[in-house]
């Protein structure tokens, strides 16, 4: 590290934020000495700021230095400065406020941060004698289906209906039918996707860094159909597909249902799929046919991938001719200011297949998504036509008239704000009721939280016990076949945090403490 930084690092932190240098915690030895350390540079500086926050030197509601200020004071890159702030945010120590900056948060619900993967070795379940994860997932889902209704559904990562402006959508739908009274009695006609929808999505994609010709936009039945179509296009039964570990169980089901081998790539709860682990996988398994990645608010961990990682992963897949299937369903929920570019923004040869959805952000009842199939686009469109013919026109036109408009952008801002408050309330409940030793890094947006519990807790057992009491959760072993997540839990924050939801967290805490043979907290 540069000697100028080493000479007065503590003083540099204090400048401009109302803190006297002598009152800050001592600069860590590894920063003073500049020696090798197991932590990345951004993590070491984040630890230093964290000490100042925990010591009360940086207090609640106090403004943090900006990315530029951190870059200049500590002589680090723009990326490292941003990672320092993101690391502190992931620990629940600071929060981003749109167009203002980062501020220290109240520590009423601060908890230990989620841990990074212990190893960066890809996991191939073949030959390990593990049960079908698809059967395990189906068993969980069937148990919930038999219950039917719940006192508290914390297992489904969807926004509550009341978070949408149903009146506006209804007016738009009626106006569209008045404009085109025969819309529901005329069947779809060529082309496969309506030109108005194609043009609208192409314009909208420009706002987040994608230049997709309108004719290269295909409407789909949500995001899942897009991912499924691509798997059918680029793989055959027995082929290998790389997925994040852990990942959304729907992706696991799609891979296994096609007789494909899933290679689980270790993923950080803060930065997503490890580029180093993926590079090892691509070298070790030359037969790898596709990689599926969720770059923004990855499910279930909530990680948002840095641009540098996106660029590296795209380049690696391009060099080896491997399809990169980008599931970007949660991009619109990211709460950080600025443009959040998908992996597709670094695609120069059609390696990246971009899959998006309006189901969670616009109108869940329409089940509307869209995709660009990269260099396989024409083949994907023909495969879709063979399977399900053309998409219905009404949802396409409704989406085309709404997405990207001022109303839509205001709706997204309100939705993110409500979800932010609901995640905060959920985190407070976790800190209040769950066992000591639980770990949680609040994501920078999204619909759920991912919690690491003490290792003695079985969330599979918790699932059954909670379900018997009318509470649905999502146990960790739904999201991976490695056996590493049996004490993890995904909880939905999509619904308003009512007294009933608070009671559900309290009951979950009681069940966990009972498993540990301890009295409950709170």
TrEMBL record:
Organism field: Diaphorobacter ruginosibacter
Name of the protein this chain belongs to: PLP-dependent aminotransferase family protein
Keyword Flavoprotein: no
InterPro entries: Aminotransferase_I/II_large, HTH_trans_reg/aminotransferase, PyrdxlP-dep_Trfase, PyrdxlP-dep_Trfase_major, PyrdxlP-dep_Trfase_small, Tscrpt_reg_HTH_GntR, WH-like_DNA-bd_sf, WH_DNA-bd_sf
Gene Ontology terms for molecular function: DNA binding; DNA-binding transcription factor activity; pyridoxal phosphate binding; transaminase activity
Stretches assigned to the HTH gntR-type domain: 39-107
Record's keyword terms, sorted: Aminotransferase, DNA-binding, Pyridoxal phosphate, Transcription, Transcription regulation, Transferase
Stored Gene3D superfamilies: Aspartate Aminotransferase, domain 1 (3.90.1150.10), Type I PLP-dependent aspartate aminotransferase-like (Major domain) (3.40.640.10), Winged helix-like DNA-binding domain superfamily/Winged helix DNA-binding domain (1.10.10.10)
Domain of life assignment: Bacteria
SUPFAM superfamilies found in the cross-reference section: PLP-dependent transferases (SSF53383), Winged helix' DNA-binding domain (SSF46785)
Stated family: In the C-terminal section; belongs to the class-I pyridoxal-phosphate-dependent aminotransferase family.
PROSITE patterns noted in UniProt: HTH_GNTR
Pfam families with a match to the protein in the record: Aminotran_1_2, GntR
């Amino acid at each position: 590290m540069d000697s100028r930084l080493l000479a007065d690092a503590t003083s540099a932190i204090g400048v401009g934020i109302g803190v006297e240098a002598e009152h800050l915690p001592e600069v860590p030895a590894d920063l003073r000495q500049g020696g090798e350390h197991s932590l990345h540079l951004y993590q070491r500086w984040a630890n230093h700021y964290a000490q100042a926050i925990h010591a009360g030197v940086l207090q609640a509601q106090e403004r943090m230095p900006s990315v530029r200020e951190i870059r200049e004071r500590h002589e680090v890159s723009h990326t490292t400065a941003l990672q320092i702030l993101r690391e502190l945010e992931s620990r629940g120590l600071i929060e981003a406020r749109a167009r203002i900056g980062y501020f220290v948060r109240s520590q009423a619900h601060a908890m230990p941060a989620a841990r990074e993967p212990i190893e960066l070795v890809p996991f191939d379940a073949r030959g390990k004698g593990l049960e079908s994860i698809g059967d395990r997932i189906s068993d969980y889902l069937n148990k919930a289906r038999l219950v039917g209704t719940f006192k508290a559904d914390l297992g489904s990562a969807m926004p509550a209906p009341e978070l949408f402006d149903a009146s506006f959508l209804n007016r738009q739908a009626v106006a569209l039918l008045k404009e085109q009274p025969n819309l529901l009695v005329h069947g779809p006609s060529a082309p496969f996707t309506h030109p108005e929808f194609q043009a609208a999505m192409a314009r909208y994609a420009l706002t987040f860094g994608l230049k997709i010709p309108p004719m290269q936009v295909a409407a789909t039945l949500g995001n899942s159909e897009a991912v499924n179509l691509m798997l059918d296009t680029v793989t055959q039964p027995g082929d290998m597909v790389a997925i994040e570990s852990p990942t959304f169980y729907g992706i696991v089901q799609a891979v296994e249902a096609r007789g494909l081998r899933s290679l689980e790539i270790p993923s950080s709860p803060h930065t997503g799929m490890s580029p180093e682990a993926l590079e090892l996988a691509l070298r070790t398994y030359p037969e790898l046919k596709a990689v599926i990645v969720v770059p923004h608010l990855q499910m279930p961990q909530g990680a948002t991938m840095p641009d540098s990682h996106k660029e590296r992963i795209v380049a690696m897949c391009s060099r080896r001719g491997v399809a990169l299937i980008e599931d970007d369903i949660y991009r619109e929920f990211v709460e950080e200011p600025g443009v959040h570019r998908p992996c597709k923004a670094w695609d120069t040869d059609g390696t990246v297949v971009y899959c998006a959805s309006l189901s969670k952000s616009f109108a869940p009842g329409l089940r509307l998504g869209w995709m660009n199939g990269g260099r396989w686009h024409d083949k994907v469109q023909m495969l879709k036509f063979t399977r399900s013919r053309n998409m219905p026109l009404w949802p396409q036109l409704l989406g085309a008239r709404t997405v990207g408009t001022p109303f839509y952008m205001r709706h997204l801002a309100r939705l993110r704000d409500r979800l932010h408050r609901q995640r905060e309330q959920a985190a407070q409940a976790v800190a209040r009721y769950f066992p000591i030793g639980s770990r949680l890094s609040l994501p920078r947006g999204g619909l759920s939280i991912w919690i690491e519990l003490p290792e003695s807790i079985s969330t599979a057992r918790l699932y059954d016990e909670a379900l018997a009491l009318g509470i649905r959760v999502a146990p960790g072993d739904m999201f991976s076949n490695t056996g590493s997540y049996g004490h993890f839990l995904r909880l939905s924050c999509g619904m308003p945090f009512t007294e009933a939801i608070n009671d559900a967290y309290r009951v979950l805490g009681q069940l966990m403490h009972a498993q540990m043979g301890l009295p409950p907290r709170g």
